[in-house]
Design goal:
- The chain is mainly α.
- The chain is built from 3 helices and no strands.
- It has a domain at about 20-50.
- The longest helix is centred in the middle third of the chain and has 27 residues, at about 20-50.
- Belongs to the TatA/E family.
- One of its GO terms (biological process) is intracellular protein transmembrane transport.
- It is found in: Cell membrane.
């Protein structure tokens, strides 16, 4: 006799039927079957589907400046934030 003897499986089956009821188990089985069918269909559709060509990636467009600002505007420099990092101290817990 092993851990999962046929008697154990029968007792387990009876407990599951008592807890869930036959109607819920039937609905669960049919829902599981439908989801497996849907998954298989989706996998077969993906395999049979011809490879579509993907469009080339879009190129970034430079920002447009107003005409009156172009002559007087200087090229913008990157902004640097200066500061000093400080360690964060966790609040003390009062247990």
């Amino acid at each position: 006799m092993g851990i999962f003897d046929w008697k154990h499986w029968i007792v387990l089956l009876v407990v599951v039927v008592l807890v869930f009821g036959t109607k819920k188990l039937k609905n669960f089985g049919s829902d599981l079957g439908e989801s497996i069918k849907g998954f298989r269909k989706a996998m077969n559709d993906e395999e049979n589907k011809p490879a579509e060509q993907t469009p080339p990636p879009a190129q970034p467009v430079p920002p447009v400046q107003a005409p009156h600002q172009q002559s007087t505007a200087q090229p913008q420099q990157g902004h640097t934030i200066e500061g000093q990092a400080q360690p964060v101290q966790e609040p003390q817990r009062k247990d």
